[in-house]
Design goal:
This protein is mostly helical. α1 packs across α2.
Length: about 100
């Protein structure tokens, strides 16, 4: 099984399909029935919605990790990361032609 979370090579996030498979597997084992038998069941819809929210949290954590580096940061995070090297964004100036 793959190692998820923060690894020596950086963040390794769980994808939606992995989260959904783990949730279905654990619930099927606990209940003793195949929870994937009917894709239109209420249980399948609930698990899919919860897994989607969890996948979003994994992606958010990855975004937070990468916001600390100037090569991958954007916006205010880039300003904050660039300050570690002593660089600051200049004030906006009008252009001229």
């Amino acid at each position: 099984m793959a190692e998820y979370g923060l690894t020596p090579k950086g963040p390794n996030i769980k994808r939606l399909d992995v989260i959904l498979d783990e949730m279905h597997g654990a619930l099927s084992q606990k209940l003793g029935v195949n929870t994937r038998q009917n894709p239109q069941s209420l249980l399948n819809h609930l698990l899919a919605n919860i897994a989607d929210q969890l996948a979003g949290l994994w992606e958010y954590g990855s975004d937070i990790y990468y916001s600390q580096y100037p090569s991958t940061a954007e916006g205010v995070s880039l300003d904050n990361a660039a300050q570690y090297g002593g660089a600051v964004r200049g004030s906006p100036m009008p252009s001229y032609y």
